[in-house]
Amino acid sequence: MKTQILIAALFFSGFVTAQQKKDSVKVNAIDAVNIKKQVFKKQGDRLVYDVASSPIAKGTNTFTLLKQTPMISSVDGKTLKILGKSDAVIYINNKKTNMDAEALIEMLKSTPSEDIQKIEVITVPGSEFQVESKEGVINIVMKKSRNNGYNGTMKMQNEHGYYNNPSAGASFNFRQGKWSGNSNVRIGSWTDREKYRLSNGDPTFRNESYGYNADPNNNYGGGINLDYEINKKQSLGLSYNMRYNKSFNSVLEMMNWQDGVLTNRTINNENAQTRNHSFNLNYEIKTDSLGSKLTSNVSYLWFNRDKVSFNESFPLYEDENNKYSALHQSVPQIINNYAANIDYLKKTAKGATWLMGVSYNHTNTDNDTRQDVFNGTNFVDNPAQTNHFIYKEQILGAYINYERKLTEKISGKAGLRYEMTKSTGDILGKTGFERNYNNLLPYLNLNYAISSDHNLSYTFSSRIRRPRFWELNPSRMYFTPTNYTQNNPFILASKFYNQELNYMYKNAFYANLSFTMIDDASSQLPLRGTLTRSKVDENGNPFTEKIKFLRYIRTNYGNSRELGLTLGMNKSWFKDIWTTNYSVNLGYTTFNGSVTKDPTSIPEPGETEELEAYVLDIKNYNMSATLNNNIRLSSKKDWFLGVNYFIASRAATEGGMMGVRQSLDFSIKKIVGDWTVLVELYDVFNQNFYKIEGVQPHGSYNNVTNFNYPRLFSVGVTYNFGNQKLKKAREMKSANDAVKSRT
């Protein structure tokens, strides 16, 4: 009996133990569901995309990953937009990237997605960020590991559009004890092909031009970043980046009609070279165990672009107003920038954060433009377009931020940035100007976590946009002798006031309402006019020559207001087999102002110039949508299909009404160990190009169609080698980052 009781007891004990194990498994399973990582969530002033938890992160590159990130889009494969409108400034580990735009995109395309921990999208950046106008920030946070070793990536790509464009790149990272570093090199050749259709006129006159541009480019770039950990609290870093672009034998050919009659053919041949070198020295010291630190930077940037062009116009019939004409033009630009900044981040025991900093930028630009015109016998200097422009600019900035959690549900961040700008511009022997102005730029962010499923935030920011240095260079770029772009050294900085209300539901659905006010707004605007001058024919008889022209000038015009609503969703379906990233942007835009004169125009003796006023009184509703789909085709997670669609309605710009654009893209990705093969087809139906139609109240019109052959077929092969868990070298902030975006 005792034996039976003992057996029964053991059986019951085993049953209970087994049942407990079952219950334990059930509980663990439930816990696993409850603690599943949130792929997309709101944190303070930013939206965080947890790449490491995303099903689309493996086997691609960082640029492709960014295009799949909520609120970020790219419709041309060359630029990134936030909420479909704001330009994106790239930071890596909270440090702004130290390279020009094209080199940056190539770096992102060669960086494997496996290195990325998360991506932070800051639609309205705080006072500490070096951004202008309504730019947003994308902060890429790299994975961290203390392992010694090395890793790298090699990539080859062949892109076929109108021409075949090959490229290749490699990156190498290492860590050994206190030393770490990374380097990269990129080479590529591509030829841009564009087809133009330009037409302008009024009820009494019609001018039309048709033609194409073929622009071959060879590009070489690279950089190195070294970091030395002096001790656990101090680090010293040095970085160098360079880029060289050679564009020789670029040809722009246009056929020109006046009132339906073919009059002449214009050919513009151009050779250009661009060199860019930047250096940065960085020092960082941690001041306590809470994360407080002091960071300082000194930087130097040297930028040089040499451009030489020869423009000829061949008449198809000849009279006094339609003869052979030609001009030589040399447009060099040299930029030297010296910069320094120091930041102090202070964290308190109560969870508050202070950030204080000062910065200084000193920039010199030298633009010695030369133009010779053919006078019927030989080439002579054109004093109106020959100029030596020297521009000097000094910017002193100081900023402070305070951030803390006010209650369990409410947090806030307030900041103030002060900038003092002194600038002088001298067109030697002609004219000059001096501008000194101060800007006080406030910032405020309030975040309310209503519940685990609902989050609401409000942000206000004030910024300015300074003209890009090449916009200030008083030179021209000719389509035809009477149709050209004109830069403007007298353009003023624009003031931006940005507000945003953001709502998020279940970390998957979001709504973003934004309002932007722009004062002293600027753009490239078409100015029509007539040049009248007295001349003498071959027989000595005087006559009056009248030439109608269209001049696209960069200038201030007035103010602009932008109201936008973005509705978006980022969600995975069917156990992460299908991942969707959808957004719809609705906008209402107004442009108000006028341009009645050209401050760059100085007629020669005996000449008079009459300009038609360009008036802006525009109110416009517009819409765009981006639908990105990533589908896993195999249980091994080694085959993926991408189907993306973009459409934008007619939308107003300062220069006229932009036509409908759309693009349907496909991609197939295959992962084999450390190898990734990616095949992509962009814009299947060739519909993502720009067409602008502008009509003025007095009846004049200006239409531009720029067809850049957007359909592309691309094949890329990437190989990752070495220890893929290696920690990246510390990315360093450069003191002249704000200047780089203006080159």
UniProtKB/TrEMBL annotation:
Protein's cellular compartments: Cell outer membrane
Signal peptide, first to last residue: 1-18
Entry GO CC: cell outer membrane
Residue intervals of the Outer membrane protein beta-barrel domain: 286-719
Domain of life: Bacteria
InterPro entries with a match to the protein in the record: Beta-barrel_TonB_sf, OMP_b-brl_3
Protein name, entry field: Outer membrane receptor proteins, mostly Fe transport
Keywords attached to this entry: Cell outer membrane, Membrane, Receptor, Signal
